[in-house]
Amino acid sequence: MTPEEAYSIRLISDVKLNEIGLFHVETWIENEKYKSAIYLNKQRITFGGNESSPYYYDGFLYYVKGSRREAKLIRQRPYGEPEEILSLGKIHKYVFHKNGILIIGEEKVKPSTYFVSDKLKYRFDGKGLFWTRQSLFLYNKELRKIISGNFDVTDIATNGNRIIISATRENDDYGLADIYEVDINTGELTRITQGEGNITAIAMNRDGKIAYLGHRKGKTPWAVREIIFPEEGKSFLCGNTCGNTVLSDLFDGVKEKIVYEGDQVITLGQVGGESHIYSVSDKVTKLTEGKLAVRGFDFKDGKLAYFYSTPEKPVILFYNGEAYDPNPNVKGLSPIEVKGEIEGWALITNPSNPTILFIHGGPHMAYGYAYFIEFQFFASNGYNIIYANPSGSQGYGEEFAKACVGDWGGRDMKELINFVNEVKKKFNLTGKFGVTGGSYGGYMTNWIITQTDIFSAAISERSISNLVSMCGTSDIGFWFNAIEAGIDDPWSKDGIEKLMKMSPIYYVKNVKTPTMLIHGEVDYRCPIEQVEQFFIALKMNNIPTELVRYQGDGHEHARKGNPKNMIDRLKRKLGWFDKYLKS
């Protein structure tokens, strides 16, 4: 398999049920660019190459037609010509109200030659500097801004009368959100939620009752999420956490959602490496089964449509008892479950082949039963692939997810090393071993090579090397690093000392492993200064190392970066591992 072949798949998102059938969006890469189109009942109906977010309302098809600098809301009658209703810099979501169309969007803004901020949070990965924020607009013949400020409106729900939004108004610096009721005439907000917490998605039924996916546990990145009914004082857990944190490197850009219809909320829930659909009413009912990861769904008038991924198939759309596969000729290798101290998996191509340990990011995310382009690519090129969910991973309960807090590179590293030894013995692996990971997986890759030389090669991506400098340069580092390190003040003497002793750069003199470092130039989550420090230190200690910097790419460079860069990345990673693991 070549990198070009690895990325020659079609993916599904934006599933939407309506009275004329099922809409879905397909995304693919063509001529080194992302393309998308809308399908109705599995037949393509738009052909511009950049359409998404379909919605059928009052005899019209609505959708968003986007480019890098502009997003247009389009309206079209069956067999009629498309009509542009409005344009913004970005359109994140739109819903229909008796007074018009409510839109979460960003205005078109031309950046100035200077930027001034008086807040801790003034830039964000994937956005850059905050030249504009996500606001709430109303369209009725003309566009009017309803809610705006130095915060983001993150979601909206309405039954046509009542309107609620989620927004980071109270604690934007830390990304915490609340639910507010909106007075559409005055823009006045009435706060509904109490305390502090995270809100990922909100929903409302026809009677105006509301629910959301999230938690009220403050600044706790490891907290499990629930379905919460804030006006009724009820909450429910789906599996080990509501929502889905099962990772993949698919470029579908899916977003989490919930649907509230009648007396039930439809949501995703996760147990270990599986994510499934659940119904929440007076009790929680699991609606799907199997070794898979459901990534998106819609529910309307008692009908359910959803799409899922498996280790062998990038995506399958399921509706009305029928499965639709946009990639019928793609069939990946199946992993073997390895259940010991922690849950893990292995793709064994040949016991004598070299083996690569992949470490996931987060740290409160998880590997599982989703397709990985990179796993299948390396397996097809003569490598065994192993991966696992050490302490800190989500999907095994809140205590397990919290277990790495204050102990990055401690218990989780021991578990991963034990996993490597277990797999080596179980499958009688005789080839060399390599290690790779991104984000927290990049931190762990950097950390492991300062603690052991059992790996013959390493590739660290969008990584962390210095937790102290990251506190002042990352979009979330000033709070995330402190909380994850278990300290109150990252700038106190004790705080700085603990952060440094948890940092790979502190032990860089121990490294003996040839290491490739890959980073996006505009990564605001793990800023490129992190890899610059580690690269210079490795070079000055005469360790074979290369630094690959991708122009224009951020933290998502390996999942939805520039397609040309993603192809180049796989070629370079393969070349590095071939050089040090196959010789």
Helix content bin: 10-25%
CATH topology type of the domain at 336-582: Rossmann fold
What would you report as the Rg, rounded to the nearest angstrom? 24 Å
Q: Which regions contain 5 or more consecutive residues with pLDDT less than 50?
A: none
| Main sheet overview | 8 strands, mixed
CA-based shape: globular
Number of helices: 11
Integer average pLDDT? 97
Strand order of the largest sheet: 32-33-35-34-36-37-38-39
Tell me the name of the CATH homologous superfamily of the domain at 336-582.
Alpha/Beta hydrolase fold, catalytic domain
- What's the level 1 CATH class of the domain at 336-582? Alpha Beta
Number of strands: 39
Distance between the termini: 21 Å
The computed structural class is: alpha+beta
Q: Provide the CATH architecture of the domain at 336-582.
A: 3-Layer(aba) Sandwich
Share of residues in strands:
35-45%
GO molecular function, one term: aminopeptidase activity
Keywords: Aminopeptidase, Hydrolase, Protease
InterPro entries: AB_hydrolase_fold, Peptidase_S9_cat
Pfam families: Peptidase_S9
